[in-house]
Amino acid sequence: MAANAALRPITDRGGMSYTTRTTIALTLVLISFGPLAIGSASDSTVVAGQSVPQGQTIDFHVPSQAAGAAPLIVLLHGGGDKGNGDMTPLARTLAGRGAVVAVPNYYSGQPRSQQEIEDTFRDVVCSIRYSRSRAAEFGADPENLILVGFSYGGYPATAIRLTAEGSYDFDCLPGISHLPQAVVGLGGAYKYDSKVATRSWDKDHTPYLIDGVSRSSQIPLVMVHGARDANVPAEFAERYFSQLDEAGHPVGLEILETRHAELIDPDDPAGAQALESILDVALGEPAVGRSGPATTSPYARLMQSSRSS
After folding, report:
1. Cβ distance 50 to 59 under 8 Å?
2. Which residues face 146 on adjacent strands?
3. Could you please report the per-residue DSSP string of 179-243?
4. DSSP-based three-state secondary structure for 170
């Protein structure tokens, strides 16, 4: 595949193209509350601080005209102790465009033990289930849940798509699915690692989630990454994309000429483009393949050269 090849639509397991599914979904959206492309951030309300059974809280951003067919987007914030506040501008804008958006406060410190990693996943799984349980109340379709992970949040978001139904057996709404309809990564750290935390890179470092890519998952994944990202270098996403693509997963990678935090700023041109990518996925039109400028790492140049030949 050429480095700048046009993205191609994914076809689901039933043979229906996502273009067809998009037409159906968009028709429902238009009937219910108008097109997602119309609306502003002021067309929504916030239901803040809802208590999740696992113990964390979650904020819901709800469009003013949602009537049962709105997509449900769960936004996972980045690591550290900032909490979910950084995701508020993106959540508010997505809600203004017609989506119901859930923003959980999950455990996102820099885990140093298996138990702390499990705490992250338990929080995220419980947040997904809880968001689904409230979807109808807010006018969203619980089946059309899009999981979006920014920075460290990209780790649990993309790892969860590789799991099986019922793989998280704990007492938090166990009868509700934890699997999303699709996943979007924004500058994601697709496997937590000390090299990400220290912002360093070892060319011989084992590719991300090497143990997971053999698992078959037809849940679409779209990754959006900044070519000038100094927090999580773009070649991390290049490696993960290459792994999943070669293993037959429905995966797309979009490289933008930007840095890290701009991806969640809807007022920044790159953030606005990332927002449109999320909405494309929410309407059932994710894309696979790679697009955007070439990255500068030796690994990325080698990979792009091999695709062009």
Report:
1. yes
2. 73, 182
3. --SEEEEES--SS--HHHHTT---TTSPPTTTTTTTS---S-EEEEEETT-SSS-HHHHHHHHHH
4. coil
In tens, the pLDDT along 245-259 reads 888 889 999 999 999
Q: How far apart are CA 7 and CA 1, in angstroms?
A: 10
In this structure, what is the dihedral angle of CA atoms 170, 57, 127, 54, given to the nearest 10 degrees? 0
Q: How many residues does the chain have?
A: 309
N-terminal to C-terminal alpha carbon distance within the chain: 8
Q: Rounded to two decimals, what is the model's pTM?
A: 0.77
Q: How far apart are CA 177 and CA 165, in angstroms?
A: 7
Q: Domain-by-domain residue ranges, the chain?
A: 8-308
DSSP codes, 234-287? HHHHHHHHHHHHHTT--EEEEEESS-SGGGG-TTSHHHHHHHHHHHHHHTT--E
Residue type, 101: V
Q: Residues 192-243: pLDDT tens digits?
A: 443 333 333 233 322 333 344 445 678 999 999 999 999 999 988 998 898 8
- Six-digit token pair at 111? 């885990």
Q: Rounded to an integer, what distance in angstroms lies between the CA atom of residue 32 and that of residue 73? A: 17
Q: Which residues, in sequence order, are CB contacts of 152 under 8 Å at separation 6+?
A: 78, 79, 80, 108, 110, 189, 192, 196
Residues 6 or more apart whose CB falls under 8 angstroms from that of 131 comprise: 58, 60, 72, 74, 102, 104, 145
Structure tokens at 101: 């958006």
Q: Look up the CATH architecture of domain 8-308.
A: 3-Layer(aba) Sandwich (3.40)
The pLDDT assigned to 276 comes to 95
Q: Is 148 helix (H, G, I), strand (E, B) or coil?
A: strand
Nearest C-alpha neighbor of 195 from the set 223, 232, 158, 225: 232
